[in-house]
Write the structure tokens for this entry.
Amino acid sequence: MDETKRVLIVDDDKHIIELLRLYFEKDGFEVTAGYTGDTVIPLVRAINPDVLILDLMLPGMSGFDVMRELRRESDVPVLMLTARSDTLDKIVGLELGADDYILKPFEPKELLARVKAVLRRITRSAPVAVNDQDNTKDNVVSYPELVVDRIRYTVRIGDQEIDMPPKELELLFFLATHPNRVFTRDQILENIWGMDYYGEQRTVDVHIKRIREKLDVIDHPLWQIKTVWSVGYKFEVKDDERS
């Protein structure tokens, strides 16, 4: 890696943490460990990690409770660790803002590869530095009552600024810059998450659901994110009402 990345690993199993510490430090990461859910938020505030590896079953606050609290103040990428293969756990975790998940037992090399994949995706979707009006135009899309700004990473609905994590904003921007065009889930995954994404198509559905909930704070009759059944999604605009 070009620069040292900080990874925060939170698991109540000290053997797992020490094993992962060996793998990540050997690959150039700076590793900080936590063992209870209550330590996560203070550690995130203190070290500002580049990525968080979070076990769901923790003493104190559960991983789910941690995610609810964390996403109120941080967009740090999160990979969940879970010993349960329950699909509901995965869905809830993704809905709460996790970026990926991996089942226990796992291969440390696979977890390391997934962390690197998440960091590559974050780097690709980082805000673009611009100095001229043309570039600004290319990175801002607007419709009546909606402005998505990929330079400042802000979304405005009416006169409200909406909190939206980077991945949700990138997905909304992607669909809104291709009005009335249908994209399959695989196409969305490739464009937003990248070819090296290890997750599943359900990730797209979860992010779309969260974006819709945020857009629905006002009525928006001239545009909507529409589900095209058995195909995917599109940003539907009536008469291409771009402002």
